[in-house]
């Protein structure tokens, strides 16, 4: 399941550089996560790094993008295949 940043985001800028897939970017009002690039850090880390550093706990699982651990790992492998 990809992650999503809620409207509680305070734009503190700490999550964006933590994302190993470049899935986080500045949106119109708050940061946003591209579900096509979000693997919840599967393949990189044991935990989602953006969630770990968020001071207001506004990064949650996106119910509109449900994916299993296997699907997230396959996405990680596709994203990093050219690296």
From TrEMBL:
KW Metal-binding (keyword) present: yes
Keywords in alphabetical order, please: 4Fe-4S, Electron transport, Iron, Iron-sulfur, Metal-binding, Repeat, Transport
Question: Record's GO cellular component, any one?
Answer: cytoplasm
SUPFAM superfamilies attached to this UniProt entry: 4Fe-4S ferredoxins
Show where the 4Fe-4S ferredoxin-type domain sits: 1-29, 31-64
What the entry lists under InterPro entries is as follows: 4Fe4S_Fe-S-bd, 4Fe4S_Fe_S_CS, PSI_iron-sulfur_center, YfhL-like
Domain of life of the organism encoding this protein: Bacteria
- This chain's protein is named 4Fe-4S ferredoxin-type domain-containing protein
Tell me the organism's taxonomic lineage. Answer: Bacteria, Pseudomonadati, Pseudomonadota, Gammaproteobacteria, Chromatiales
């Amino acid at each position: 399941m990809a992650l999503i940043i809620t409207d509680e985001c305070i734009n503190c800028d700490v999550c964006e550089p933590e994302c190993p897939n470049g899935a986080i970017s500045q949106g119109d009002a708050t940061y946003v996560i591209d579900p096509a690039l979000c693997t919840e850090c599967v393949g990189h880390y044991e935990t989602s790094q953006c969630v770990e550093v968020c001071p207001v706990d506004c990064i949650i699982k996106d119910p509109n993008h449900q994916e299993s651990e296997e699907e997230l790992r396959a996405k990680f492998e596709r994203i990093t295949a050219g690296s």
